[in-house]
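As noted in the main text, all predictions were made from sequence alone. Below is one such record, for FAD-binding domain-containing protein.
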Amino acid sequence: MNSKADLQGNLVTCRPLRIGIVGAGLVGATAAIALSRLRGVSVAVFERSPGPRETGAWISLTVSGLIILDKLIDLEKVQNILYRGDHNGTYVTRHWRTGEIIASNPSSPHVANRFHQARTHRVPLLNVLLSNVPQGVIQYDRHVVGHEVTESGVRLNFKYSASETFDLVVAADGLFSKMRRHYVPDEVRYRGSVAYRKLFPQSQVAHITGLHNDSSSWRKDGEVMFLSPLGLGQYGIVAIIRETDEFAETLQWAHSTGKEGLERLRKHFATWDPIIDEVLQTMTDIDAYPLDSAPWMKQLVRHDRIAFVGDAAHPTAGAYGAGATMGQGDCWALFRSLQESYWQPTSVMETDLPANHIPRSRYDLQRALQLYDATRRPFLARVELQIQLDGADGSYISEAADDEEEWIRRFQERHRNQLWLTEHDVEAEFVKTLAAAPVSSSVKNMISPRL
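Prediction:
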């Protein structure tokens, strides 16, 4: 074990920073890749499932998300599973009845082609991420049931195995995060809409004349139908429609609604663009995802030892299709914050230590988590506010439902390409936060941090 003398002549022992990550989904895997790159760390990821989950719908990858992935892994491995199609990855918005294009959301002209927004599906993306996590870091079938903050760190308690203690715990356990509910006890609630989703071979719809070779969304008064190829020979459908609380209670997350549910969907979209029904006619069932929401965390850290990322911190319930990208942004900000808080001693020597000596890491966790929180909170607050403002805009547009021309005018008037979100530069935001942050004397003088 390494040690050095600080400016007071006290012996300070340096050992790896112990990092525990709860959850091995898209965000947890990204956190594992990023944090494993830090110097002097020991990373363990705990996933309650017995293995990687082979389910999930399509994923939108924004410019921001692709730039972050490019920093962490070989982006060519991701490019191989992406779909952009016509309009170079742009989402096209169509009139619900006519299919006429009424808006589009292109990437900025200066964005390199490899970073243009794209679609894929969850399983191949997760597989690419998992292939970049160091071997042995992820431990499956490890169900975290609680945690306790102690003088020596955060003790994670498991359902079927002994507790383990970490200097830093990263909560990446998603919408139903037990760690978040320990601090924000408000329940997860149904938000009034259900997402019906399905992936199937693209050959299933190859015979449909006039089917668009792009990522299209048909919109009407808060309800949406998405259709798109997704790469790797797959095609995806996502329908978001309003359903009563009573009906939503009969549904199970990610479970098929069967032929009956599919017929219900066809009736709902009977008056929409006929191309939608042609796609639905090729299907035998569709899965339901009742859209739940929970309060967002106003602070992303607790006790200078716990950091929340992804839906565990800000459950978006599918807003903007940017949940995965926002979680990846969290991971990059946390990585850079820890990287900045690492101190390098001027001299290191081996020494024998008393048995009761508590070793320390070379990371100032308090400073790191302050930087992380300060980097991400303003952006996330903007997203949360925008969701509320978009709801008000939706009501304004819906008031013209009986006047098609006015409805289109209002939609185009209020439609915005959310580049501030999809192209948000997390690295630039971190640098700005770092420039404004005071540097403590302990960091300037390379004196031992609090751990």
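The first helix runs from residue 26 to 35. Residues 17-55+123-187+297-444 form a domain with the FAD/NAD(P)-binding domain fold (CATH 3.50.50.60). These features were considered when defining construct boundaries for the mutagenesis experiments described in Section 2.9.
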